Amino acid sequence: MSEGDGGIVSVTGGAGGIEAKYTDIETLARIFDDTGDELRSRAWEDKGIVVNGDLVESSILSPLTFATAESAVLAATIGPGGLAFEALDLEVDALAMQANVFILRGADDLRRQAIEALDYLVGRALGFALPGLLLAGAGGVLITLAAHPELGLLAYLHRDEISKLTEQELIDLLQEHPELVQHLINGGGGLVDGLLDNLPPGVREALLAKLGLDPAHPTTNDIAGDLAGLFDDTDAKVTEGGAPGEDPRSLPAPGSIQDLIDNLSLTNDGADGEIDIVKIGEGDNARYIVNLPGTDSFGIGGSEARDSLANLQLVGGQETAYARGIREAMERAGIPPGAPVALVGHSQGGMTAAQLASNPAFTDRFNVQHVITAGAPTAQVPHIPDGIQVLSLENKGDLVPLTDGEDNPDQPNRTTVRFDHPTGSVGGNHGLDSYSRGGQLVDQSDDPSLAETKDQLRKDGFVGSTDPVSTSTYTITRAP
């Protein structure tokens, strides 16, 4: 696959998303219902005019006029086309709108549950079949699977065809059809359960008891949490400044989404474990941007806080040493309670940012207003408080955002942008250079959800500020 640029592929969630439209319909339904109540009340009040004492007495003087007035009042209040009937029409419309939203939300939930169940069953079937594939001797295919386990679903479905493809052709195929990876990973719990199905029941139960694993793992989150529990974690160790001999960074105030990503890239160029806290403005007007790079090491449980253990913990919904270190660094930076904060993270850093934004213990201390993620799986965080705006950038050919196994929730305060910027390699698609291009595409877009997010970032002073800027660097590792 050659380097190219297909622009923005899709924008979901945010002010123009489906859930926002559902909310708008519900709001309109409440207005209709309230208006109907008011019209009905007025209808019965106005109907009382016909029994007004003065009007009734005047009927003796002009019976015909009284009858005409009485008929007009009754027609305008409780007659066909009157206020009472208009009230009923409004309330019926309100009920219909509420029912439609309820049905549509229910259909969305049923679809999601069906996909979850199907992915689990496919994963379990694949897990049960893998030993047979190994015994059959699949040669080069198995070598490729060992290096790239995300190819397993393709191998299971097309064992004959896949053997004819080179490794690069397989990678290219996945970049063109990332949904295959997403569904395979979403069935990760079933995959492990299927592998365990090959064991005799007694051996299986003994192994599960020895490792402390649950007997079933309906979701990838379940198996990730179980596997993370097999390894010891420690407290974070936070030191001020970067690596010895490293020049202090001085990041500029970002003027755009692309600038936010480029600043994050500069932080990422530092030593392992480093994060930057950028202060914009002074005194009560100060705002803080926290730059959070991603995975440094694919080891597990070592001194690196940003390792594979942290990835497992995040997918499993567990707190990491990296997250604890971020909180400590923000405390050391002197971020006062109530000061506006934006968390900007790449890969594992974006996962951590989303998790922190959903943690009441963290948001009670820090006033998180924005989260910007690049190449980060965040669907494992089901809910972000309404007052926090999340913008997630996902490159179509980047497999990492798919490792949560499902699409990000469509919520009014969560906007997900998928763009197409292939580089010819999996690593290049995940790199911050690609996400800089994604940020530029967002800056140029007039999509309503993106326009709302960009406007809010400017209003909150995180983008486009001319206030003075200072940068503090902290290094987070696992304590010995």
Q: Main sheet?
A: 9 strands, mixed
What is the total tally of β strands? Answer: 9
The number of helical runs is 20
Helix content: 40-55%
Query: How many discrete domains?
Result: 2
List the helices and strands and how they pair.
Blueprint: E1 7-13, H1 18-47, H2 53-58, H3 63-77, H4 83-136, H5 140-147, H6 152-157, H7 159-162, H8 167-176, H9 178-186, H10 188-197, H11 201-211, H12 220-228, E2 236-240, H13 257-268, E3 274-280, E4 287-292, H14 308-315, H15 321-332, E5 340-346, H16 348-357, H17 360-363, E6 367-374, E7 389-395, E8 414-420, H18 426-430, H19 432-444, H20 448-459, E9 469-478
Parallel strand pairs: 4-5, 5-6, 6-7, 7-8
Antiparallel strand pairs: 1-8, 2-9, 3-4, 3-9
Helix pairs in contact: 1-3, 1-4, 4-9, 4-10, 8-9, 10-12, 12-14, 13-19, 14-16
Protein name: Alpha/beta hydrolase
InterPro entries: AB_hydrolase_fold
Biased composition (Polar residues): 467-480
Overview of the molecule:
This protein is an alpha/beta fold and 480 residues long. It has two domains: 18-110; 235-478, no CATH class. Helices cover 52% and strands 13% of the residues. The chain contains 20 helices and nine strands. The chain has helices at 18-47, 53-58, 63-77, 83-136, 140-147, 152-157, 159-162, 167-176, 178-186, 188-197, 201-211, 220-228, 257-268, 308-315, 321-332, 348-357, 360-363, 426-430, 432-444, 448-459; strands at residues 7-13, 236-240, 274-280, 287-292, 340-346, 367-374, 389-395, 414-420, 469-478. It has a nine-stranded mixed β-sheet with strand order 1-8-7-6-5-4-3-9-2. Helix 1 packs antiparallel against helix 3 and helix 4 packs across helix 10 (188-197). The longest helix has 54 residues, at 83-136. The model is unreliable at 137-160 (pLDDT under 50).
